[in-house]
Write a structure and sequence with these properties.
The protein is an alpha+beta fold. The protein is 20% helix and 29% strand. The protein has one domain.
C-alpha cells in the first residue's frame, strides 16, 4: 500500500512592526508533514510526522503579490515553505521511510526471557 501525505501549518509568527508598508507580515512558521498508512493483518494504521520551522524574507515595498494576513491560505504558506528551502521531496521520503520502519521493523525489543508474570523477582530480607 502507499501512504497518504498531509502538509499542515501549525503556527505563524507575524511582525508587530510595519515592514515596507505592510502590516502583519508573516516572518516564520511551523510546518508539519504527516504520513499515514494502513498495513498488516489485521490491518493497523501507522502514522509518522516530520516537522520544522521556516523563515521568510521581507516583502519589498509595493510588492503586488503581497497577501494580507487575513487572506492567507494554508496551502499558500506551505508553498512559501517549499520555495524558501523546505525540501518537499526529501521530507516526504523521510516520512515514508519512517513509516516503512514502523511497519517492517529491523530491530525489536522482546520481553526479557527471565521475567514472567507468574514469578516476580524478589530480594531476600536482610537482618
Amino acid at each position: 500500500m502507499s501512504s497518504t501525505i498531509n502538509w499542515t501549518i501549525d503556527w505563524l509568527n507575524t511582525s508587530t512592526q510595519t515592514i515596507n508598508g505592510f502590516s502583519q507580515v508573516v516572518v516564520n512558521c511551523g510546518w508539519r508533514c504527516t504520513g499515514t498508512e494502513q498495513a498488516g493483518n489485521p490491518e493497523k494504521t501507522y502514522t509518522n510526522s516530520v516537522y520544522g520551522t521556516c523563515s521568510f524574507v521581507e516583502p519589498p515595498a509595493g510588492d503586488p503579490n503581497f497577501v494580507p494576513f487575513a487572506n492567507l491560505t494554508q496551502q499558500e504558506v506551505i508553498n512559501w515553505c517549499w520555495s524558501s528551502g523546505v525540501n518537499q521531496e526529501a521530507t516526504e521520503t523521510a516520512v515514508n521511510t519512517n513509516l516503512n520502519n514502523l511497519i517492517n521493523p529491523t530491530v525489536v525489543q522482546p520481553p526479557l526471557p527471565w521475567q514472567t508474570l507468574e514469578a516476580p523477582i524478589t530480594q531476600p530480607a536482610t537482618a
